[in-house]
Amino acid sequence: MKTTTAPAPTGAGTAPEPRTPLARRLLETPEVGVIAACVLVFTALALDKSTFAGAVNLQGMGFDLAQYGLIAIGESLVILTGGIDLSVGALLGTSVILMSWFNVRAGLPPVLAILVTLLIAGAVGLVHGLAVTRLKMAPFVVTLVTYTVAQGVTLAITSGTSITGIGGLFSDIGQMYVAQIPLPLILFAVVAVAAWFFLERTYAGRQVYAVGGNPEAARLAGIRGDRRVVSMYVTSSLLSAFAGIMVLGRMGVGSASGVGVGWELSAIAAAVIGGVSLVGGQGRIVGIVAGTVLLELINNGLTTLQINSNYTNIVLGCVLGLAITADRLRARSVARRN
Amino acid sequence: MAPDTPSPGTPSPGTPPGAAYPAPPAAEPETAVSLRDVVKTYGPVKVLDIPRLDLARGQIVAVVGENGAGKSTLMGVLSGTVTPTAGTVEIAGRPMQPGRPDHSRDMGVAMVAQEFPLVGQLSVAENLLLGRRPQRAGDGALGRLVVDRAGMRAEARALLAEVGVTGVDVDRPVGRFPVPVRQMIEIAKAWGHRPVVLILDEPTSSLGPVEAERVLALARRHAAGGGAVLFIGHRLDEVRAIADRVVVLRSGALVADLTPAEATEERMIREMVGSELARADLAPPSTVAREAVLAVRELTADGLGPVDLDVRAGEIVGVAGLMGSGRSRLLHTVMGAQPRTGGRVAFAGADFRPRHPGDAVAAGIGLVPEDRKAQALLPAHSVRWNVTLATLRRISRRGVLRPRADKAHAARIVRDLGVRLHSQEQPIGALSGGNQQKAVFGRWLAARPRLLLLDEPTRGVDVGAKAEIYGLIDAAAQDGLAVLVASSELEELLWICHRIVVMARGRIVADLPREKFTKETIMTAAAGSAPSAGGKARA
């Protein structure tokens, strides 16, 4: 048998891929369910309440989606490496405060305030990554520390008083429309496409999956997994701060009332609903975005239907339960076929 | 519980065979176990197919066969851990419900496994009486509920004494005892069930010569007392010494049923490997270059060395040794997967100090690790992702992977290696062991390394795929790769290597050219000062 894998004559390299029926390919695509659910929920709500699909409501959802979606992507990148980042929400809140503090109290121009805040967030992510890779600390614990400290920092800086008088740049970013589309939504789309490109089209992205899927196998295959893991923690923290810009711009004040706390759970929920495996190594951007969209549709839909907001979390929890059950069943049926 | 009456009293280790074991009641049938048309398939692969097999009382039947020949499956069927796809099993004339370990145990099958299912945190006594109560325990409600500690201890000591172990504190957790003692405890545990059929799965592989002899004596005693013993052995000398009958399995089928007189080592090996491995072309290719690709000098690492070793281009060098002798450590240290503490390595003429396996891959070294699932595969991901893992950077352009190039690259690897699959997008976990292993080989051959490190390259691989993998190794050497292959299967090394180095306690203790290859030399060297324990090379 010839075993060299030197470049074969042109044309001979592509073995014929057997065509699988569309239905089966759809079944084997993990994201199908959540995308279908998005379409279903949207259609149902739009038919029931004409205001739901109205421009104003859609734009409002766009703003929300950008905030939640950005941290959901960051969160998912960390989960793909086999870790978890509990600090995304709290760090977003702290970034909001830091930016307004740098801008108003320290007198820095908005651009500089943003840059410094991003730098700080990046450093926090670096600490997370190094603690997880070098010290082999559990990601859950490491980011739990930040979750707690970040909330404390927010309180310490503001002493409970919101910071007012922030620069115009923030509201420009947070409230502007481009051709009727909210700017934050466009920025979110850009980030999502970039993340998709990184994960699906770069070798570094593939290595992230490998490290999450089987760290030892990746290491013995010569992949420097630690670098990938650290960079994902840094990206996650950066995206939290980036989302903070949108939040600050939209609210117009550096809110001391703990904005962002609890959002990490929505982010994790969106990732799981979108097919990201919590053990790492599995999940795609399409699913993560669809998961965020679904959560937002339900959240907003419940408001539109004027359902008591106290019930919102019950519904969201049930959706999460349904999603993971459906995914489990789907995975099992695929495994049986193989 | 077993139908036999429990043996009274506590015989000392020196008790003559048979004396402690009561003869079976005359009414019991002579056949202890009978299998009829037992078949086990996993998907399309038939791993066991036995039309008829009877085990008589009073006989020690040895089962031999290569790894993957179906020995474990056969034992699994008897002990109830494997549900046969078809067929019936009768124990002492009564049908056994397939796939029910508890039922099979109650009918009198006891198995001593290679990997001990002992609970490390529990004491010796608790382990020995796991799942049952002491014989003397009260039958009242109290006796049923409350653990009778004194009774447990006494019975545990009695059991250990029966199998010839003394001086073991039965209150200590099992996990604190060394492996040989744990193995003896495991045997005592099986013995405690007073079985009709005692299955011993390589019971002596982790034992020293004295304990091994005790276990063999115990098996003889059990047979003499009217029980049946199924003895799975890799050490053919041991098999010859103990068996009243030798059954040879190959690829799941029963290929030979030999009397002790017929069962010479030569004959057993011939039956085990079949015809395909008797071929002459298994000799390694004669393409050894003169210059060393890898030159290791006084290399030390945790549990390794100092080691001196040269591997030349086109040369296949085997690494033999007992379990824990440092075979894997040597490969991992060369690969940079384990930090070295001293010494020098020259690779392709230059000084080589890998700090991460990534350095080794960049320099041109590939490693096929020992535990495929834990160390080599991304089991949930596609074949394509798995085979391109070590060459991702190479096939990307400025860091970007182009889907078409990616797919073409993977297709080429899969085709060159003859990996059988539906689609390169299917999860690699769904392939058979042999095809998974070929995919791992493909991953490395695609990286065009100059040195290939192979750790147990055919573990968990069926016989056919084994031959293909040997072919791959041969071809790789022919292409000028240096190959360093560590294996616990001596036959494998004898067939494919130009040279074998034998390791013991982290050092190389022998370096044998092909003309000096014999199992005896290797085993003697591997066992160091105690040649009688040489069979541990199979561990």
TrEMBL record, chain A:
Localization, UniProt: Cell membrane
Region described as Disordered: 1-20
CDD domains reported for this sequence: TM_PBP1_transp_AraH_like (cd06579)
TM region positions: 77-102, 108-131, 138-157, 177-199, 229-249, 261-279, 286-305
Entry keywords, A to Z: Cell membrane, Membrane, Transmembrane, Transmembrane helix
Membrane topology of this protein: Multi-pass membrane protein
Superkingdom: Bacteria
UniProt keyword annotation of Transmembrane present: yes
Name the UniProt record assigns to this protein: ABC transporter permease
UniProtKB/TrEMBL annotation, chain B:
Name of this chain's protein: Sugar ABC transporter ATP-binding protein
Domain ABC transporter: 33-276, 288-530
Region: Disordered, residue numbers: 1-28
SUPFAM superfamilies hit by this protein: P-loop containing nucleoside triphosphate hydrolases (SSF52540)
GO terms, molecular function: ATP binding
SMART domains linked to this entry: AAA (SM00382)
Regions that span the bilayer: none
Naturally occurring in which organism (per UniProt): Actinacidiphila epipremni
Superkingdom of the source species: Bacteria
Keyword tags: ATP-binding, Cell membrane, Membrane, Nucleotide-binding, Repeat, Sugar transport, Translocase, Transport
Biased composition (Pro residues): 1-16
Gene3D superfamilies: P-loop containing nucleotide triphosphate hydrolases
Origin organism lineage: Bacteria, Bacillati, Actinomycetota, Actinomycetes, Kitasatosporales
Classification via Pfam families: ABC_tran (PF00005)
